[in-house]
Amino acid sequence: MRARRSVFLVVPVALALSACSVSLASTVKPAPADKEPAGGTLHMLRLGPVDSWDPQRLYVAADMAFAGRVFERTLTAWAPATDQNTLPKLLPDLATDTGVMTNGGKVWRFTLRDGSTWQDGRPVTCADVKYGISRTFATVEITGGPTYALALLDVPRNADGSSTYAGPYRKTGQPAFDKAVSCSGRTITFRLATPMPDFNQVLGLPAFGPVRADKDHGTASSTQIFSNGPYMLRGPWVPSRGATFVRNPSWDPATDPIRGAHPGRIDCREGIPVARAIRRIMTTSGRDSLAV
Q1: Number of H helices, E strands in the chain
Q2: CA angle at residue 189 from 184 to 190, to 5 degrees?
Q3: Which domain, by its residues, includes 173?
Q4: Looking at the 3D structure of the chain, how many domains does it have?
Q5: N or C, fewer C-beta in 10 Å, the chain?
Q6: Residues 6+ apart with CB under 8 A from 214
Q7: At 14, which CATH number?
Q8: Considering the entire predicted model, what is its pTM?
């Protein structure tokens, strides 16, 4: 129950942030072509530092909302919020629908849509989703993120309550995880420990997002980003300074029913004191007039 309550505390905050980003992004107007990309630049000011951009380590609601709209797609996701008093619809994102539930809510199946790719053009596969989820079980290497996968998936436990599966780096208990999360072509099947009729909502969290095994650096993956969304990093993320996100040329909006991705570029800066950020956001001219 603790895990389920935490999920639904996160959703309203994430939705509010998505609504803010959609409405503000739509106001971005292109500057001269030699200075701005088509769509202009959205300036994001934050105190920071971000704990991690690793999808299985993300825990702060604002960071999860940002990642989910910028570089980390999931099987399901919430539609952009247009009214703060109305809960948006849950939509398929990487999946073709919001899932098929059987066995009273203990088994869920999703089929990945065609055309969703990583920033190098390779397709996002069922194995990538499964691998991403498996990282949550590596509680020694992957720390700080939500542990919903450990609580919900039907993976046996040891006498001390720990999972018999130790994650993809050690592979202890791998057959048990393979039974709980299995792939057949583009279809991924989840077997849960107890019935959960709203499991498809939980899958909208980055902790259930895909990670490609050959791009996973384990404990060193904290601020590395390999995108399957509309934006990708230009250069490394520098803690307490930030980085710039540019268009991911391999992202196809025809495969993405969620993200409008209006800005041509997102300049995300950390280390900005709150009072200074407020002053800059209140500016009505120049680049700060396009800051959030």
Answers
A1: 7, 10
A2: 150
A3: 2-290
A4: 1
A5: N
A6: none
A7: 3.40.190.10
A8: 0.87
